[in-house]
């Protein structure tokens, strides 16, 4: 029999916590237990009556004090996997298994407090993680525990507003190639097996996964446009290729083709005829390696590093080619709203702040255009 804070008996399955909330608890007789917290005693009693009825009639499966690890397994499998992209699931898994589980995985979800969640983030900062990665870990924890709140397993989400950490490494400034760097890169990349893929991103601004997943059925050479409809990546964990939708709904888009982009596609079509074997599952994929299969993202990057060293420029990843495309478009006078649509962004702020970089050469050119207006009479 539980009691309230004044010592008054409340009845079986009812008690009052020090913070004033009332606890209603029920067991199914097999060691499984469920409990819920209420501000008002009458609400706790009403829930308990209803829960007892459901247990007696076999219509409820009462859960016990589940661990964070076990709850995550349910959350990621039953709640998230059917509704989000594979890449997102992979990111959740990485953050939980590497950073969250070692710290609080064995705890019962009802025992986790804000300080425990804060410790997860603090340790990441001490270990040298960047702020973006730390923030994603917080997002993962918040979603995990909020689902427990929504399912009446805990009363409050321990990832409160105060649980945050900004002492990690600041994000690296994403750069675009200067015109000189771009020319040097093109010079050494031309004629290599992956040149067409690199050059195509510089002409279209595709994400790497969108490039890998591009199909001939999505190419309209007559209208000079490609339809971005899917992405593809190689999943090392399972050893197979996975296709999925673009990153967001705005990722579904049509991109007009320059003449150079058309020429690249025509060259890819000619290269295709020289391939001895093309597995049936890749028969419609545009960019294939000599084995007749798509090129893995990591292979694109490793080849880039080799070419950068050969060209004598700072190493960069595939995504820099997308940044470079965006920057060249702005430098040439493209309207930001048009660029936003081509890149597949939901928000134009992302386009301008993240993907567009004004090079030193361009700043000098712009200043020279207004030089006469800036002159002051000093003599």
Structure overview:
The protein is mainly alpha-helical and 379 residues long. The chain has 15 helices and ten strands. The chain folds into three domains: 55 residues, GCC-box Binding Domain (2-Layer Sandwich), CATH 3.30.730; 83 residues, DNA polymerase, domain 1 (Orthogonal Bundle), CATH 1.10.150; 187 residues, Orthogonal Bundle (hpI Integrase, Chain A), CATH 1.10.443. 48% of the residues lie in helices and 11% in strands. Helix 3 packs across helix 5 and helix 4 packs antiparallel against helix 5. The model has no long low-confidence stretch (mean pLDDT 86).
Number of domains: 3
Radius of gyration, in Å, reads 28 Å
Mean pLDDT across all residues, rounded? Answer: 86
Query: Which residues form runs of ≥5 with pLDDT under 50?
Result: none
Secondary-structure-based class equals mainly alpha
In whole angstroms, the N-to-C terminal distance is 95 Å
- Gross CATH architecture of the largest domain: Orthogonal Bundle
The arrangement of helices and strands along the chain is EEEEEHHHHHHHHEEEEEHHHHHHH
C-alpha geometry: elongated
CATH homologous superfamily label of the largest domain? Intergrase catalytic core
CATH class of the largest domain: Mainly Alpha
Relative helix content: 40-55%
Number of strands: 10
Helix tally equals 15
Major sheet strand order = 3-4-5
